[in-house]
Amino acid sequence: MNFQNLKIETADRIAVVTLNRPEALNALNRDLLSELSTFFDQAASDDNIRVVILTGSGEKSFVAGADIKEFSHFSQKEGEALSADGQQQVFNKIENFSKPVIAAVNGFALGGGLELAMASHIRIASDNAKLGLPEVTLGLIPGYGGTQRLPRLVGRGRAAQMIFTAEMISAQRAFEIGLVNEVVAQPELLDRAKAIASKISKNSSVAISKAIKAINASGTKDGFGVEIQSFGELFEEKDFKEGVCAFLEKRKPEFK
Ligand code: CAA
Q1: Which distant-in-sequence residues (6+ apart) come within 8 Å of 152 by Cβ?
Q2: Model confidence over 7-17: pLDDT tens digits?
Q3: What pLDDT is stored for residue 1 in this prediction?
């Protein structure tokens, strides 16, 4: 995989994807989003990848949002397309990706940057991270799913306050309100994300993909049904046989 705006390093079945536009604080322009979309399409069938970690280049910024310079002259139609294409081709694709995606938030996570972290399944922040949805300062609202995912994570009231005031919050505050799972010192961020990824990669990948599906269905009218069906389907998988055999034989399972 050869990309201009992404650096990909894969080791131990963990792909670390670094968004790499440091001159623009890793803002999401069309090319970067298109490369992210391609990466996830390819990673879906790559057996060498069990977990994906998303992070930003440098220590200052995860992602400072959608690229403002690129959409500064957009019309209504172009604005709608920006939002719809981004949601379908990147943000929803990440949320529904069959392998876990961990956002290692290493600095500013603003606008589309916070939306990218929220589309990921797990968020770990460095202690210098600053998170916010500043779109209303530009006369806009979040367009990459922020109005939908933020209320689910932190509740409507807190989401409304963050979106209406456009204020950035600290990593510690983000932890307190459930927006990030953990806060670690900046130099430890990637190691911590990799340690979580490593734990995940030892478990059954087929079970985890069903867990993602069921968790994503939570709060919908089908949620419990998706869980029942997924639970049942797993009994036909080799991983179930291996997991149960390993338990009965008092050894660690080896999932293929
Ligand atoms: N788009 C394009 N370029 C950006 C950018 C963005 N979102 N954020 C930063 N940059 C660029 C700056 O223009 C600057 O480039 P130049 O030197 O060529 O001017 C470079 O990155 C460094 O930025 P600053 O000089 O501004 O750095 P700073 O440390 O003074 O401030 C900051 C950092 C507070 C993050 C500030 O850059 C900022 O406020 N950025 C914009 C944040 C924002 O509004 N994000 C939301 C975007 S809209 C969106 O995301 C819509 C959506 O939901 C789909």
Answers
A1: 219
A2: 999 999 999 99
A3: 66
User: Does residue 163 fall inside a structural domain?
Assistant: yes
Q: E-strand spans in the chain?
A: 6-11, 14-19, 51-56, 61-63, 101-105, 108-110, 122-126, 130-132, 169-170, 182-184
| Parent domain of 151 | 6-201
Average pLDDT, the chain: 97
Say whether both 84 and 104 belong to one domain. Answer: yes
pTM value > 0.90? yes
In a domain, residue 1? The reply is no
CA geometry: angle 31, 111, 28, nearest 5 deg: 10
Q: How many domains does the chain have?
A: 2
Give yes or no for residue 132 CB within 6 A of ligand 1. Answer: no
Does residue 27's CB lie within 6 angstroms of at least one atom of ligand 1?
yes
Catalytic annotation, residues: 115, 135
For residues 54 and 6, the answer to whether their CB atoms sit within 8 Å is: no
Residue 107 in contact with ligand 1 by CB distance below 6 A: no
Kindly state the tokens that stand for 114: 């916070």
Same domain? For 85 and 210 the reply is: no
pLDDT for 2: 82
Could you report the per-residue pLDDT of 190-216, keeping only the tens digit for each?
Answer: 999 999 999 999 999 999 999 999 999
SS3 at position 14: strand
18 located within any domain:
yes
What is the model's pLDDT at position 34? 98
